[in-house]
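Sat 14:20. Reprocessing the chain from the morning session after the first attempt stalled halfway. Input below, unchanged.
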Amino acid sequence: MVNTNQGESGDLIRRAVAAFNSGNHDQAVDLCELGLKQHPGDSALCHLMAAVLFARADLPEARARIEASLAARPDNVPALILACRIARAQGRLEAALQHLDRAARQSSQAEIMLERARTLDQAGDASAAGVCWTLVLQREPKSKEAMARLGHLAWERGESLEAEAFLERAVAGGGHRAAWFDLGLVRQDMRKFGSAAEAYRRVLEMSPDAPEAAVNLGVVLQETGDLDGAMAAYSMAYRLRPSTFGVIAMALTSASSGRLWLDEEALRRSLASGAPPPGAKPLAVDAGR
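Finished this time. Tokens:
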């Protein structure tokens, strides 16, 4: 319970921030609501309330609170950045960019460019996003996010060598699963099947419930001639998501080597159990046909 006799908004804000940072969002909301009863329209309390609600994915209420905060302090840069994030989460990308334009007129902090790059990325403006991510990386040369996004954008343009270089930097020392997956795609396109398999395995180590990575791992292992390893990967993908069956069945007969099942149900049972069924016939396929 929150003591309704607590003091001024500054003390309430400090306590609410502490609660929020410790993960106690309910207490943070209670403290903000108490403060707003005592100090209606307080911009800092509205801002903090918006941050808590945003963390709880209550986007409509978070938007209402951040707009109330900006009504009191329209040029507050942290509030404008939060307003951008809320708008982007709601898919209101033009509004998100407008908030950033206002923030940029007040400050040149790197976070504004970062949020602009993310927003343009979400909007699908690859050219403008690439320019922004390049500026982010120039200001923050160790930004793994910028490296990963620049790598992905280079892969979309068909610039495999550039993409691989960015993505290898992005995953150095760990990396996010999305960057490892993109690196697998790039290496697969370059026919570096062994190193592509390594990348997909890293994805599965980080997220064992990633059927796309399991399917792609099966494909590249099949290309290396490791049919048993490929079947194990396909089995993992099928158990995670049965709808991958069509892709798996096609891959088994379209790669440079594979296996042919005349009985579709036998293949389904094999994938579900992880064991090869009787009657699985090795199939050599001429990929050049």
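Confidence is low (pLDDT under 50) at residues 1-7, 277-289.
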